[in-house]
Amino acid sequence: MIVTFVNIWVKEEYIDAFIKASRENHLESIKESGNLRFDILRDPGDPSKFVFYEAYTSEEYADGHKKTPHYLKWRDTVADWMARPREGVRYNILYPENELL
After folding, report:
1. Cβ neighbours of residue 20 under 8 Å, at least 6 residues apart?
2. CA pair distance 100, 20, nearest whole angstrom
3. What is the pLDDT of residues 9-41, one digit of tens each?
4. Which of 82, 85, 9, 87 is nearest to 45 (CA)?
5. Three-class SS state of 1
6. What domains, with CATH codes, occur in the chain?
7. What band does 90 get if pLDDT is binned at 50, 70 and 90?
8. pTM: predicted TM-score of the whole model, two decimal places
9. Is the CB of residue 36 less than 8 Å from the CB of residue 1?
10. Cβ-based neighbours of 30, under 8 Å, separated by 6 or more
11. Of 32, 8, 25, 37, whose CA–CA distance to 72 is shortest?
12. What is the pLDDT, as a whole number, of residue 27?
């Protein structure tokens, strides 16, 4: 099982639009085969910083997410709203050992 933490910093004037676009991406992502979780988090100390927690059953499904129409739409929509490039870091899930996260 694979988790990706994606750190995102959004320009202040685009925060509301970013949240809306990200919600649409979230709602479609949780329907994907192999998706265990797709959480969107916001830093309470910095309202322009977000973290996506994306959990998939395999590398194949995690990589496949980046080819979906909803991801490509989100990526293109929010590209100019970033205060700096987003940072994705992948991890392997050790526990829980099952797919119920």
Report:
1. none
2. 27
3. 999 999 999 999 999 999 999 999 999 999 999
4. 9
5. coil
6. 2-92 (3.30.70.100)
7. very high
8. 0.91
9. yes
10. 37, 38
11. 25
12. 98
